[in-house]
Amino acid sequence: MDYTKSEMQADTIAHMIGPDQVVIVGTGLPLVGAIMAKKRVQPSCTLIVESGLMDFNPTEIPRSVSDLRSMAHCAEALPPYRYLGFQANELLKGSKRLIGFIGGAAVDPYGNVSATCIGDYYRPKVRFPGSGGANGIASFVNTIIIMPHEKRRFVSSMSYITSPGWIGESGRAGTGLPENRGPLAVVSDLGVMRFDEKTHRMYLAGYYSSGSPEEVQANTGFDIDVSRAAVLPEPDEDEIRFIQKIDPKRIYLLK
Amino acid sequence: MPKGKERDAILSGKLYKLSDAISKFVHSGDHIATGGFTTSRKPMAAMNEIIRQGQTDFIVEAGPAGSDWDMMIGAGRVKAYINCYTANPRFSNVSRRFRAAIEEGKLLFEDYSQDAAMMMFHGAALGLSCVPVRMMLGSGMEKEWGISAQQRRRIDKLPNEKFIIQDDPFHPGEKMLLLPTPRLDTAIIHVQMASPDGTCRIYGDPYQDVDLAIAARNTIVTCEELVSNEYIRREPDRNTIPGIAVSAVVHVPYGGHPSQVYGMYDYDKEFYLDYDQAGRTDESFQRFLQEWVYGTKDHEDYLNRLGVTRLTDLKVVPGIGYHISDEDVAEGETI
Questions:
Q1: Is the minimum CB–CB distance between B42 and chain A shorter than 8 Å?
Q2: Which domain CATH number covers A79?
Q3: Tens of pLDDT, residues A57-83
Q4: Which of A23, A128, A249, B128 is packed most tightly, with the most Cβ within 10 A?
Q5: What is the radius of gyration, based on Cα positions, of chain A?
Q6: Residues of chain A positioned with their CB less than 8 A from the CB of B178
Q7: Can you give the residue range of the structural domain that contains A145?
Q8: Whole-angstrom Cα distance, residue A55 to residue A47?
Q9: For position B333, what pLDDT does the model report?
Q10: Cβ(B49)–Cβ(B77) under 8 Å?
Q11: In angstroms, what separates the C-alpha of A137 from chain B's closest C-alpha?
């Protein structure tokens, strides 16, 4: 069947959400995947966003985390500090049901993400909006990073980290961040990357049948271990059709 | 009933015309924050009026900002900008005047995480000096200070340190990052309903607005609906800002345009797209300000320029919760 890479990516996102998981969604492609999960693949999940909207299930694709499309018919519209309190308390309780999706401009081999700037912080080549909720999510919650697979976005080092991942080879020790939280995976339009338990370094776990490990390496700005990579299953035709219906104007899905 | 100022005086000492509220409570150099969230419930009519009147040199706690503060940056009114996120998502994924000002080195700015900003507002509302958190650690926000300690000493409204990191005295081995809370001169929020004594009712997500209203020395409220003090007291459980925390109430229908207001109207997509295009250069942005801000006498003039049908076409459809076309209502098919 016909499907685009970003539709495949959204479908992969949907399938990464487990039963009863509480999902911090944000915007972008994860929103398409998360809506897909809530409505079709994993209805027991609960979607929340950093503006404080709890258990939303939109009937039209939202543009922002504060969109009326998420606010209408959600369970609670809490002030954002309540959302943060919930997030921090899940950590204190040792709960692992929370998972957060974050995006950004670039990711390094240890899953550190930049969403603030490219180049010098004070006189950047490109300036982005800033952290939003991403830094809090990355600090407290296990995350899945969503990134288009390009060399300039998979970079060997990061001068400004907006959302900390595993920091470096020795992990988060000494930073003050919880050491048992961090990025679980990166989902790109070429495949799924995971992090080695010992070295915390990114490796290719799975690639789409339309591509290859060589293509992943060619589009990655650092050496990436592809020895553990397996081909990912083809997407379900109904699911792809549903994904197209979730974002008919292709606000997030690429053309 | 008398009209104009006389009528206002009869109703309450807090009920103002927009221009009077802004001129009385917004001053150059103010430490200031606004309610709302990127493209939702932003006090845009009040921002337009500030730009018309000329107040400048603001120390801005921008929170989840959209074109409210992007406009103010583009109009050259910001002295120091405390950022956590500045975008009109999916219209301008980075607000363009904010971006240009930083890339060109023309804006004194600082970055916090959005959760940090929210905790700073909440801490301020609780009267706390600082709030200990565990975020921003290990990130660029810890390592880089947009506004150095030296620069901070020259701006008396900013704390001398961006934050302080110390060991958690109650949990040995854990670190905490102390966020200083802002001492705001002015907060401006836009709500669905208020009464002349300042009592406010917010429908939908309150965002940081209640905290700002409690924390700021002066809070200006613009409201979609002005109701009597008696009416708003019929359901006190729905009211979240006490009148005694409010300095001025202004009745401003569509005062959030082009942002969306829960239960009332949706964002004006065309307006946001035009705003995005206008923001590409300083020249085109100044033309936009000329057309929509300086070139309109007041908010009423602005609304008349938009036109009635443009506004009615933004109305939220009851039961749906946002705007959809009549055809879509008839079809009734959603995901």
A1: no
A2: 3.40.1080.10
A3: 999 999 999 999 999 999 999 999 999
A4: A23
A5: 17
A6: none
A7: 5-246
A8: 5
A9: 75
A10: no
A11: 9
- B86 neighbourhood in chain A, CB within 8 Å: 129-130
What ipTM did this prediction achieve?
0.96
Backbone angle region of B54, left / alpha / beta, with phi > 0 → left and psi within -120 to 50 → alpha? left
Tokens of A167: 């920091």
Question: Which residue among the candidates A50, A150, A214, A239 is catalytic per the annotation?
Answer: A50
Contact list, A35 vs chain B (CB under 8 Å): 335
> What's the confidence (pLDDT) of residue B7?
58
Q: Is A169 a catalytic residue?
A: no
Residue A231, strand partner residues: A207
- Indicate the SS3 state at residue A24: strand
As a whole number of angstroms, the distance between CA A222 and CA A151 comes to: 8
Cβ-proximal residues to B243 (8 Å cutoff; 6+ apart), any chain: B14, B195, B197, B198, B199, B200, B229
Whether B201 contacts B192, CB under 8 Å: yes
Domains in chain A, number: 1
- The CA distance from A213 to A217, in Å, is 6
In this prediction, residue B11 carries a pLDDT of: 55
Report the gap between the CA of B324 and the closest CA in chain A (Å): 10
**How do the domains of chain B map onto residue ranges?**
16-130+182-311
**What is the rounded CA–CA span in Å between residue B87 and residue B81?**
14
B200-201 and B186-194 beta bridge pairing: antiparallel
Helix (DSSP H) and strand (DSSP E) numbers for chain B = 15, 11
Closest-CA distance of chain B to residue A229, Å: 30
What pTM did the predictor assign?
0.96
Mutation site, B121, B176, B323, B335, interface A, largest A CB count within 10 A? B335
CB pairs below 8 Å between A and B: how many?
A: 203
The two three-digit tokens of residue B168, written as one number: 């958690």
CB nearest B115 (choices: A78, A84, A167): A84
Q: Which 3 state secondary structure label does DSSP give A12?
A: helix
Residue A253 falls inside a structural domain: no
Is the minimum CB–CB distance between B137 and chain A shorter than 8 Å?
yes
Contacts (Cβ under 8 Å, ≥6 apart) of B210:
A79, B125, B202, B240, B241
CATH architecture observed for domain B16-130+182-311: 3-Layer(aba) Sandwich (3.40)
